[in-house]
Amino acid sequence: MDSWVNSAEILGSDLPLELSGTGNRRALLMDALREAVRSGRLAPGTRLPPYRSLAADLGLARNTVADAYAELVAEGWLAARQGSGTRVAERAAPVTPVHRPRQPERVARPVHDLVQGQPDPSVFPRTAWLASARRALAAAPDDAFGPGDPHGRPELRRALAGYLARVRGVRATPDRIVLCSGAAHGLRLLAEVVGGPWAAEEYGLPFHRELLASHGVGTRPLGVDADGARVDGLTRRDRAVLLTPAHQFPTGGPLHPARRAAVVDWARATGGLVVEDDYDGEFRYDRQPVGAVQGLDPEHVVLVGSVSKSLSPALRIGWMVLPQRLVAPVVAAKGEREQFSSATEQLTLADFVESGAYDRQVRRMRQRHRRRRDQLVAALERRAPHVRVTGIAAGLHAVVELPPGSERSVVRAAAWQGLAVEGLGDYLHPGAEDASRGPGGSRDSRGPHGPGGPRGAHAGGAGAVPAADASLVPHRDGLVVGYATPAESAYPGALDALCRSLPPAAPPAATPAPAPPPPPAAP
Predict the structure, then answer these.
(1) Exposure pattern of 396-424 as b/e (b: 16+ CB <10 Å)?
(2) Which of 16, 48, 268, 285 counts the highest number of beta carbons within 10 A?
(3) What pLDDT is stored for residue 516 in this prediction?
(4) Residue whose C-alpha is closest to residue 402's, from 420, 416, 423, 426
């Protein structure tokens, strides 16, 4: 018999029934139907077309299809009932199992969140923001709804120039301010324009180091102590240095005045650039305001800021206050049009600042964060008086210092308590990690975990260059506790989980028994 190929769709579905080969046509049809059921293409309960229709579609005799249906019913592949047609039998489950990719196990979300980095989103000033948006849109010029200027809206640049001069001691005119979508965007543009290598504080955001590395800019660590970054480690080879002078992130504390002057002197002598990340300069509690380093020398310092901590990271509005020589290159790197920040949100923020609503929001949040900080300190004094809390004079987080070698185990204990919190070691520059090892690769005894101990997840990351003097400063174990993040109702539970996660106080050292008196001398 000649080779024969034909096909039909079952009840208009996308599943074709193909008959091919030589031999008895009834047998070919039965084999095709068995294979469709066996493979699962015809699921149990699927209704087949009447044999007359299928015969017409396939070009077969009606009796051929009717006999095939009858034999498959007898074999148990199909089932036929008066008035309901012929269907795939329910008991004719596919013989060949259908393999589905295994679903990844769900990771339980933490019950409590003390990770630093963002304010409680529930306190965003919606009513005041909406009022500013209405005023801004009503007064907006027509060009605000056209292609955006990469400098940013002039209304917001004017508002920021006045605000930053009044609050942060910044020396800037609107033409030196370039708007961006946040601090990370600003660093990306500066990396492209300035090039590398850069120096950076040995404790800082891994994300920033990785971002610079992705643009070909390596960083090397500067040691950090109680007076901030050890800027005496800067060299002529460094093109820029990334600092958090108002409140060192994450260890806390402002950069010492002598070191502020020294880093500006370095920039003037070498032509280097100081990049000042002013991430939370508005939030201080137990000290006088610390002005921006940019005020000391606007031609050698870039101030980078945003509303991520004061309002919300969702707004995606940041700024760079630039030396005059860098304005044109940064704008060129940004592009011919504004692609990142909404013009309407820029106009709204300009009104929010000029109307005084921004000042009121900052004062409100300062009071809230101070109250949160005081609750954290009180809870630890009551339930874990053996631990020390540092970096609490300003900002949105604190460092809970831990005994050497305990950081990783405490983070794991916190996870068991349903608490998300980060270890201080997660922020350590990988170059500083390498510098704390001995000549044979073992850890220096001054390292936070003792000889050979583990370190945070970012050790060995990309973009690091050898450290100069990071090993001169002992590294520490601790937790970085973000007390601004939880909702008001969730904060007490988060503090309770934190206290349960901390190690107990070390037992007091046993007092050695006094030595017995010497035996009397022989007469």
Answers:
(1) bbbbbbbebebbbebbebbeebbbbbbbb
(2) 48
(3) 65
(4) 423
